[in-house]
Amino acid sequence: MESYENLTELGWTAAFEASFDSLDFPDIWPARVVREDRGHFRLISEEGPQSGKITGIFRHHAQSVADYPAVGDWVAATSTDRDGLVRIHAVLSRFSAFTRKHARLENQAQVVAANVNTVVLVSGLDNDYNLRRMERYLTLAYESGAVPVILLNKTDLCDDLESRLAEVAAIAPGVPLHACSAQNEEGFEVLMHYAKPGQTLAFLGSSGVGKSTLINRLLGYDRQKVGAVRESDLKGRHTTTHRELIRLPEGGMVIDTPGMRELQLWADEKGLQNSFADIAELAAACRFRDCQHQQEPGCAVRSALEKGELDPVRFESYAKQRTELHELKERLTYGAAGAERRKWKEVSKIQKNFKKRWKK
Ligand code: GDP
Ligand code: ZN
What we know:
The chain is α/β, with parallel strands linked by helices. It has helices at 14-21, 56-61, 131-144, 161-171, 211-219, 223-233, 258-275, 277-283, 300-306, 312-359, and strands at 29-37, 40-45, 48-54, 74-78, 86-91, 97-101, 109-114, 118-124, 147-153, 177-179, 200-204, 244-247, 253-256. A six-stranded mixed beta sheet has the order 10-9-8-11-13-12, sandwiched between helices.
């Protein structure tokens, strides 16, 4: 049989082979999940690209959400002539996985990217630069089982690279450290070393550090622009073009999913609590548990501000970061268009309340 794909180039290894050989299903073949959209999987295998879904038995035996196939997973598939979709019988043992708390199901972990070899922790050398945040990403990376690499982007905006490199090396001993300017196309080629055929990369870092630009550089074209055109055809279904394993022209692969962005959110939330522990402590004494520290009665934070016990600059910085997190959460939950609609709803609600008050 002629095959469309070379499994090794897709990341197939002896360990997956062993996991596959231990399975006892008739007529199965190995396939890798390149896209997932609400239970609908896009697979690639020696048979070429295919669409599939899990079997009822799989669903029945799954112990938790984390057992379901995720982007990057290797699965055992069979064909069916019923609906043209292949059936996924099993997920092969993962060597690495990025998990996060499930959005709705409590105490359930969800895999957002599987079988990532190298996770590139990207930081911008502009005002985003933050060593504490880098430490949090490093922890996430180690928890995943992927090998971390640190990449400091935007060298064109930094005039003291040497001391930055020394600072980062001090908090991340033994972690490969690189610097580049994705914009000026300087130094990003170092990524090619981690993106050899059969290797899977993922990027982790706050919004705005240059992850998309780096992926575009590796791809050789602007993925967002292409994606935007596709999305406008799909009428507002924003997530579909993002949750995927992208193949690079040189043979490696990159996983880019909104789930990775949620990991950042998670890291940032933990970080917000840690880096503003003083404000969190004050907020515990606010009358309302969900106090926004605006005009609410019994607000301990505002009272500390008024008494001069809390630096207003520090509070500003906290409020700004919290708003950013809130917006990111909205975007992830409702999609870009949905978040915009909700924002306007909120604005009109505020206006209505304002008018009501005005009338009184
Ligand atoms: P992402 O949110 O991490 O995916 O970040 P983007 O790739 O969207 O980049 C955010 C902004 O930073 C964009 O305006 C990019 O043009 C800019 N940017 C990316 N890399 C560099 C760089 O090396 N130098 C400078 N000056 N800007 C960059
Ligand atoms: Zn308060």
